[in-house]
Amino acid sequence: MGNSKLLKTIKNNWQLYAFLVIPVIYIIIFAYYPMLGAQIAFKKYKLKLGIWGSPWIGIDNFTKFFQSYQFFRVLGNTLFISIYSIIFNFPLPILFALFLNSMRSERFKKSVQTITYMPHFISIVVLVSMVLQITNSRVGLYGVVYSALYGTYPADLMADPNLFPHLYVWSGIWQSFGWDSIIYTAALAGVDPSLHEAAQIDGASRFKRLMHIDFPCILPTATIMLIMRCGKVMSVGFEKAFLMQNSLNLTSSELISTYVYKIGLSASGTMDYSYSTAIGLFNSVINLILILLVNQFSRKYSENSLW
What we know:
The chain is mostly helical. The protein is built from 17 helices and no strands.
């Protein structure tokens, strides 16, 4: 009975199911089929033997990574930058959306939105070029202002490993916080105006209405976004880190993503595909565990969760 009912539903709504064909094929080809290649993490991959013909070595590649002197460095750098970004980059779009929603002038509100959304459309390459140009100790804004004030050239900011996380995170915040606030602005647009009217009649100030009406209304959305963000803790952007990286700041800029590239794909690296795949698989498993734990915690202590 169940199969016949499903077939009847598909027959009656075949146009809707037809729309699913291309996305399903896309996901199978680019998401599920490549998972077969993950098995080389447990093999000593040789190009001439192929994936299926390469000898099986079990968890030796994972053991090699755990015992490597780079393990704690790349793991620590990745976690530090990711958590640093969550602490500052996650709440700012929420605060910004609440700030925009409290504006009375629609013209000023739209102007602020346009200005803050624009950096999102700057490519990573251009963004890093801007950071390098501004922080240049000779011809950059930082160098020119410093030399004008003190009569000498300053130290190179990009050469200081301690400054790399700050430059990485705050340049990302500048680029994304306006765009990230869109989803919260949309959630605030759905707040029932009668709630504000009732609160105003009761004498509630704008700040109290923001805290007791606006913020609780976007809290479910914020919770879902936080859960999804925690599922990407180990996936710090490769392109930006790699472009900002140099030999002087390598102790703090070497992340799991850049390390995987250098081990597996870089011509100057070892070209060890099995080892790099094992590191990437370890990274993905940690992300999966984190999103499961955070989702379980949210479901237990609140009414909001992904599933």
